[in-house]
Amino acid sequence: MKVVVKDLDGANTAKEMEVVVPKEDVNKMASEIYDDIIKTVTIKGFRKGKAPRNVIRMYYGDYVVSELSKRLVSEYFDKAIKEQGLLVVSAPEFANDSPKEGKDFKFTAKFDVKPEVKLEKYTGFDLKKPSAYVSDNMVDDVIKRLRENLAEINDVEDREYMINEGDFVAVDITCNDYPGLNRENVTVEAGSDKGFIPGLASAIVGLKIGEAKDIEVVFPDDHFMENMRGVETNIDVVIRSVRSRTLPELNDDFAKRARDGIESMEELKSTIRSELEERMENNARSALEKDAGEKLIEANPINIPESMVKVQAGLMIRGLSQRLMSQGIKLEDLYPDPEAFKEDTLKEAERIVRQSLIMEAIADEVGIEVEDDDLDKEISSMAQRYNVPPEEVRKTLEERGGIEDLKFSIIEKKVFDYIIDNSNVEEIDEGSESMEEGKDDPSTDSGRTDE
To answer: What secondary structure does DSSP assign to 361-419, as a single string?
Structure first.
């Protein structure tokens, strides 16, 4: 076999490979195909398995040529890339003439290969880490939300009752200019900043059952509905029903109801503080890793093939679509501008590919590896988090091909540890008084096992 590899771009990632298979190998593979045919077909006038090759060729000549081409290309492409030490990262494009017995067979393949990473800098960065300080106000906010979650909810029958903040109100929404906003019997928490229509929750405070109100609405430029960003319009809202909320007293009985295994308010506050400290530290670590990742990419430029970015983007979109479908949400409803969504996804995919390649190169240079003990610890941690046996977690990962992904996440963490330990880290007081609503919020966790 003769192999010649050419570069198709200056980045040394696009390749064209020409492979010449000697006629002896062509004849051998052709004979194997004929033998396969003879064993399985019956030709009139000949006993099964006794028909001569020239007769087989009369009946199955086109099939033999097609099958011979497929097998030669598949087998010798794999042999050639192994011989050349190439790591192919795209679907190859093949070109070849029809193979002929007794003659050499030549084919070409165009493909992208994994780029070589030449590390320039991966230590000595000036990094910033947000403070993980937990204030009393943060603990109080969690208790406030727990209190709201355990509030007594009662239907309001008095039609003279005026809506108060915290009440749950069922409303009909009509917008003549934007019918897509129309809703019937949708529940709004009065006075909150939640909801898909800005200002609606505040505007209904003080209204009564059956009352209607015209509300002027201004959608912010960063609203999650892209087609409504920056829009000013009016909506008509009608109050259908109201449920009032009575908050429980803050005492030991409340603490026992708020969390399993908690006996007092002091214990509840202490538990919440510990959870907040852990989660704030995790958030701070994530921000620190993001800062380190950005500096790594800036300091270590790589020419990456477009095919790698597209593959990563495809995986991201597929994963997002599956998660949204499980919640009954369509991807196009959340991202009505497909071009903007595509552009954002490709940009993030490129960042992920660049960072992953750099991290892998650092691990190789420094000698960072995943030991069996590392994998066992991570699986045990996952098992504890989901309250299932470690063996079940490992089996699920193996069945879904997730072991290699888990190994890379361990490698990534070790590499980040190495970078951070060998860089200058400054702690900054940024956003320590706020937590993302609902996400990483102990008030959303009753202490019971997740489904």
So the answer is: HHHHHHT----HHHHHHHHHHHHHHHTS-HHHHHHHHHHTT-HHHHHHHHHHHHHHHHH
Q: What is the rounded average pLDDT of the residues 197-222?
A: 93
How far apart (Å, rounded) are the C-alpha atoms in residues 173 and 196?
Answer: 12
8 A C-beta contact, residue 219 and residue 230: yes
**φ and ψ at residue 180, rounded to 5 degrees:** -65, -15
SS3 32: helix
**What tokens were used for 51?**
């028909």
> In angstroms, what CA-CA distances link 225 with 152, 276, 345?
33, 31, 17
- The answer on pLDDT for 40 being more than 90 is no
Tokens of 417: 């540890």
Q: Which amino acid is located at 72 in the chain?
A: L
CA distances to 38, 43, 56, 103, 255 from 59, rounded to whole Å, are 11, 9, 5, 22, 84
Copy the structure tokens of residue 372. 């069996």
Q: Which two tokens stand for residue 81?
A: 């890339």
Bridge pairing between strands 212-218 and 232-246: antiparallel
Q: CA separation (Å) from 109 to 14, 26, 88, 197, 311?
A: 11, 18, 11, 55, 19
The structural domains of the chain, ordered by start, are: 2-112 (3.30.70.1050), 126-132+263-444 (1.10.3120.10), 152-246 (3.10.50.40)
Half-sphere exposure of 275 (CA within 13 A, CB side): 20
> CA 258 to CA 262: how far, in whole Å?
8
pLDDT band at 193; cut points 50, 70, 90: confident
Do the beta carbons of residue 316 and residue 270 sit within 8 Å?
A: no
Cβ 366 vs Cβ 418: under 8 Å: yes
Residue identified by tokens 């009352």 is 211
pTM over 0.90: no
Residue (of 305, 307, 303) closest to 315 by Cα position? 307
Give dist(CA 113, CA 357) in Å, integer: 13
Q: Residue 42: what pLDDT?
A: 79
Q: How far is CA 258 from CA 142, 271, 434, in A?
A: 11, 11, 22
